[in-house]
Specification:
The chain is built from 6 helices and no strands. It is mainly alpha-helical. Keywords: Membrane, Transmembrane, Transmembrane helix.
Amino acid sequence: MNPNLLAMIAVVLAGGATALQAPTNAKLMGAVGSPVNAAFVSFAIGTAALGILAVILQAKPDVAAARGLPWYIWVGGLYGAIFVVAAAWGVPRLGVALTITLMVAGQLLVGLLLDHFGAFGAPQQPISWGRAAGVALVLAGVLMVRRF
């Protein structure tokens, strides 16, 4: 199988998982009292699952290389925490489809900028009319999901 096709399928499935994550964490939020508590439980379970997977795969981190990374590389988990808290909080107010559509729109807008500048080591891909139009279509989709 084409490695790029396999990567695309994996990413689509991961996107579906985030769509499932939003309503399950919203339901959890009702039981544990806040979106922050729901995110904490979600991350604790995810951390345990990753720990088990690391043991199974015998993944050994390169501690020396990790120590040399700039400070901003270490805050990636904070972005995930913001995502999970916002999703848990947003779903009961906006619904799953609108919450996820807005999140995708935000991801695409920031993604365009990161690509344009080659930030964080991403391959530099300047903003083009086609790429901007693609994001505009997603933003139009947000309006359609919201209004119809």
